[in-house]
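Hey all, sorry for the wall of text incoming. These are the two entities for the joint prediction.
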Amino acid sequence: MQYWKNIVWLALALICSCTYIEPDTYYVKPVAGDPAVITLNTSLDTIENPLVRDSLEVTYGISVENGELYELNAFVHHQVIYSSDSTLGSFWIYSSYVPDPGTDSLLLEIIYPANTNSLADVLGLESLVFQRTYTLLFE
Amino acid sequence: MKCYRIKGMVILALVILLSPDIHGQKLGLSASFGGGTFRMDDMKLLLEDMLASYPVEGKMISTFPPYYSGSFNLIKAIQMQVYAGAGYTYTSTGGKLNYTDYSGSLTTQLSAISHQFGAFIQTSVLNDGRFDLSVYGKLNANLTLLNISSIIYVLGYSNGRSYNYSSLSPGGSAGLEFSYFLKEISLGVYGGYMVEMPASLYDKKNRSPLSLPSDPQREVTAEWTGWRVGIKATVWVIH
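and here's what came out:
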């Protein structure tokens, strides 16, 4: 009669081992595409030491060769003052953005695809950053 | 209609097994371990459809390959060299799509499990007391449980979804079994072919049928049709 117990345990053990599991994965080394080339033009390019008396409008144009613009962020005094995903646009800088008159900077940060062709890149989650800084004089 | 057939098979099995012991002969419990092949044509199409929707070039890692199965049965001699029984068989297989690179991975896993409840009849064609060659025929109700899960990991973040489907379908199998009898136990090997009538899979929550993304009119079925082989041990409680 002890066979009864043994055979039930054997049956349960066999059934538990019969569930299909596939541990393999398909690992890929992505082949990167041509890198994106960024061209940035702003209205500040032709002004030497731009002055912000009350306010100053900045217009910009961005071209991204071999890719697309993910985002443009503009910073003054470490604060984001403007964000956009448009390649053409404008924004205003106000003198109130800085605590004291004097020299400060405008940082333009362009986020664009890394073109690595990885999963993260294809989903738009892997990016590179292009930065340009302009010196501004606040009154 | 299918439900009535399945109920009928279960009742038939119970009548056979619980009938008075006219012949006063053998009663045993068997366990078997083996493997099988599975047709699963619709499932393979479903995998292809899913792979085509990947944003990157993934790969089919597996497409419902042959896999192990296990079963246990109650078996009873109803005449000299004729046995009948009923039992349960567990079978599993699956499919997997995957893409992995340094930035993350995308995985789709289809896990199919078959719970078969059935009755069989088996008769000896050659027997010398120790060795026995017999043929068997089996009818079964097949409950298929399918889990489809997709998960994506990218740059430390993850997101996933899981869906559960089920179907109930009748099937049958036939084959040969070779056994070696000792006093209280017998050991054997068997091989045969199982045919299952494919049945549509339905979502366990909302009962909507599973269909191909590329052809929503086409309902996906699980088809366990294929070869079966294995080894078997039987303990004869009454011998």
